[in-house]
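Hi Prof. W.,

I finally got the Delta-lactam-biosynthetic de-N-acetylase prediction working! I wasn't sure whether to trim anything, so I left the full sequence exactly as given:
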Amino acid sequence: MPRLLKLILCITLAFMIEAAVSETVPVMASSVQPYHFGFKKSKNGELPSIAQEGFMNILQANEAIFLGDTEQKELYLTFDNGYENGYTGKVLDVLKAKKVPAAFFVTGHFVQDQPELLRRMGEEGHIIGNHSWSHPDMTTLSPEQIRTELDKVREAVAGVTGQQAMSFVRPPRGIFSGRVLETCKQLGYTNVFWSAAYRDWETDRQQGATHAYQQVMSQLHPGAVILLHSVSRDNAEALSSIIDDARKQGYSFKSLNDLNVKIYR
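And this is what came out:
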């Protein structure tokens, strides 16, 4: 091969390598960039949106759940159970009476502290999801540490309920990165966020069942994934009315196992 041609090929290859490296750096940086899940709330029946939050493509690339089929008047109830505050039993009573499925995302603390409630969730047909063992900011963890957090919950739940597999995970505090979602997906989980929520987790700022009812009902929209915290007295007291009046509006309650259409907007 002529020396000139070799030189040209070498220079071309060098430029290609430099370009490839420069292109991969931002991707790697974005994969570990932490995001706090946020969204534009639904009002007056309008659909919620994550289009302005900067992470929509990350959720979509990892097939995470934010919003279900917006052509169907279906609702998905999900609860975060970091610890027990005396209201999960009442929540389960209402769900059983109304024949409504739900998903409960549990931490290691809840699994160890409330085995009877955990068993009841499984026996009554609800999804038990993974909310990590110690509720950390998972963007600060390595993939191996994330696996450990999730495996400990899965194994502990299996020990209590006999349920061997877990299909859904919710990153603690809604903090995530591309690496977190990708790691969870590789471990066989579907990441679950939400399209309807309110500030309900502060146990010293409960404002009554009417407040909880209004907060949830004002955000209802087709395909809504509703996040509630089971530590809230307000939620427990409002849940029956929320279910009844949502049904009066033509909504039905579905399991996350039935959520087959994921919308990103």
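Residues 4-29 have pLDDT under 50 and may be disordered. Does that look reasonable to you?

Thanks,
D.
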